[in-house]
C-alpha cells in the first residue's frame, strides 16, 4: 500500500517552517543554492526554474506574515550573488511580563506541551546545514515546533489519521461494561479534556458520530482506507462533542476498601465511610463519573486500596496492575 500523501496545506506549512528554521539557523546570509540543499521540499523541485518560482512565492508569503526576511550581499566586495537570512532582532518578541494569574494558566498549559523540539524534515534540514559548514545559532530555533507528549500509545496513529483524513480500525473497551469491540472510524478531530485525549469521528458501523477516549483503545490502530477519502464537517467542534458526551454520562458510586492509615485523599472525597469492615480495612463510597480515570488513581495505591464495585472499575484497576507487573518482568 502506497504511503499517504501529505495534504497540500500541510506540505506548504512544513516547507515554510523549514525555510524559517533554515534562515534562523545561520549567522550569515545563505545563497539560494544552500537553501535548496537544506530544505527538503526544494530539493524535490523538477527544475531550477521551478525551485526559483517556489522560493520567490515563499519569500513573499513569509514577509506577508511579518517575518523579517532580508536580502544581503554575501561578499561586500562582490555583488554578483545575494544571500538571505532572517533578522533575529526583528523576529524576536519584546520582553513580555505576566500577571500572577496568567503565569498560573501558562503553568497548566505546560503540562500538555511537554517540551519544544525539532522533528522530521526540520531536523534533517539542520543536519544538512551543519554538514555544509554553515555557522549555526542553536538558540534562535528553540521553541519553533512544540511536541505533544502523551501516555496513550494510540495517540500518534490517531493524530496522523486526523491530519490525513484516513479511516482507521481499532479495538475499543466500552465504558460501563468494559466489553471489547472492534470499531471502524473516520477520524474528525483529536483534543484533550480534563487530562485525557479523545478522538472524535464517524463510526461507520453505527453510522453516527462518536467520541473515543484514546486510553480505552486496546492494541495498535490499523489503517482501514486511503488518505483524504472522506470530508470532515465544516462545523465540527471536537471539544463540544467531548463535553456533550461527558454530560450524558451518568455518575456512579464506587465502593473501595482502603487500608487503615492509607488513602487519605480518597477518604476526604468519600460520600460515606465504614470503619473496621475487616481487620485493618475500612470501606468508602466515592462518587465517580469516569471509571478509567479513577482506576488510574487507584492503581497508584497498589496494595493499600481495593476496588470493590462497580465491576468495570475493578477490572480496570486489575488491568493496570497486571500491565505494570508484566512490564517489570
TrEMBL record:
Residues 154-218 form the WYL domain. Pfam families: WCX, WYL. Signal peptide: none annotated. It comes from the Bacteria. Residues 251-325 form the WCX domain. InterPro entries: CBASS_pafABC_assoc_protein, WCX_dom, WYL_dom. This is WYL domain-containing protein.
